[in-house]
Design goal:
Elements (H helix, E strand, L loop, with lengths): L7 H37 L3 H29 L17
Helix pairs in contact: 1-2
Length: 93
């Protein structure tokens, strides 16, 4: 009698695991790019325009990583309606 395979919590956990796997996969590539850029900058003593290109690429990659981390944080939030906790502390009267 306890074979309820559509438990909402089990689905939520499965969805969370899938999301975590996706974010981990999406973070692997940017981290590789950052590692390669740091190696290039250290090994070639790049200067001028080339150095600026690599620094810009690193900055953009860090932005992408931050976006992926935000997605991960969003997955951990409760799906309850009205979870806008950004600054509305005193709602009501």
């Amino acid at each position: 009698m306890s074979s309820d395979t559509t438990d909402p919590r089990e689905k939520q956990i499965a969805d969370l695991h899938a999301g975590i796997r996706q974010v981990a996969h999406d973070l692997s590539n940017p981290l590789g790019i950052l590692r390669m850029a740091v190696y290039f900058l250290q090994s070639t003593k790049a200067e001028g325009e080339k150095r600026e290109q690599y620094l810009t690429m690193m900055n953009e990659t860090i932005d992408r990583v931050e976006q992926q981390l935000k997605r991960l944080r969003d997955l951990t939030e409760e799906p309850a309606g009205g979870s806008d906790s950004a600054g509305e502390e005193g709602t009501g009267t």
